[in-house]
Amino acid sequence: MPPSIRNAHDIPNDIIFHISEDLYDSPNGRIVLLQESTKNIKFTQGRTFQSYINEFCGVVGLSSSMLKFMIDTNKRVPDPRQKVRSSCVLIVNHSNNFNKLPNKSLKPALKQLLNEGSFSDVIVHVNGEELPVHKCIMCTQSRIFSNVLATPDIKKTKSENNIGQTSEEERKLVPILDKQYSSRKRLMDFVPECIHIVSEEYDDEKIHLKIIGHEIYMIKLLLEWIYSGDIILPTTMNEVIKLSELSEIFMIDDLTNRCQEDIINHVNVDNVVEILCNNSVPNEDHSNYLLSPIILKHCKSFFLKEFQEILLHDKDVEMKICKIPGLVTSLLTHKTESKSSSKKERKVTFSLSQNEIHSTPMVVDRYNDGLSSISGSSYDRSNLTRD
């Protein structure tokens, strides 16, 4: 039987994944999780069922297409887009078509293709290191790589045409771009300045791309996600932020969402100020990575909510946040609203003048003019006076 959390005091902060049958990595593969085992993921406000399912699948290393999830309380399949409002138990089984899946997954084969570089037709150059990749895979996973690599006769397109100029090849590419970008006039808006085509510098038949301004470690993580849809995220918050912005630059939306979920889940009173100070505005040499609007909004909201506790850890926090646009104003507004709210629930002490016996403090509702009862006492409202 799956664990019950109908009592909110049992496990108030977890989404529990209860494994109701042995889970395998493939129809004829190894067992990943045993029947009746559980996996817990910390409950966070605002996340959807799909968000928790993605995290669970990432932790156990299984594809969500192999699994079926049901809510314990009503035995129904959850709406992936629905936000989870409280702790719950999700029952996990293999999907109905699991046994029809091919015995060998394509993911390890693609990762092997990336690691070995076999049959590559594109070379990515990063900080002097060459990474052989495949045009057909890169184009299907990134709109930016698709825009760059789909250029007609790309080996004859000089690198300077990618930045600052509008060539005939670039103009031909504009119609294939997403509708949300159709109002822009120049392809340089769609091809980041960090990408340069340098094929003319080499005599082979492959396409050569040079990526500048990014660490080789981050580019390798990006490529691993493109090929497999699965990576182990960096352990430091700053590196996850870097990877998040890199995925936004190359328009890899699923990786962006994965990074943003991880950042939001790990924001706390110890790191929120550092995150906001280091990643909310560009530094002098524009070498830092900026937060996306979604993460920035969450960090600011968390900062305002937990300001008093943050202040206990860092007495200079108000000086540090001065450079963050709008945050000081938001903080002052938040403080004012908090004080106004606290006045509505102020305590007032009354005394019974008739017997000259002072009552215990009572909370008065200013709007309903109601008095809390005094235990063991009967009183006449006309005889009450305020101290």
From TrEMBL:
Segments traversing the membrane: none
One Pfam family, short name: BTB
Annotated signal peptide: none
Gene3D superfamilies linked to this entry: Potassium Channel Kv1.1, Chain A
Boundaries of every BTB domain copy: 120-235
Top-level taxon of origin: Eukaryota
InterPro entries on file: BTB/POZ_dom, SKP1/BTB/POZ_sf
PANTHER family: SPECKLE-TYPE POZ PROTEIN (PTHR24413)
Protein name: BTB domain-containing protein
Species name: Euplotes crassus
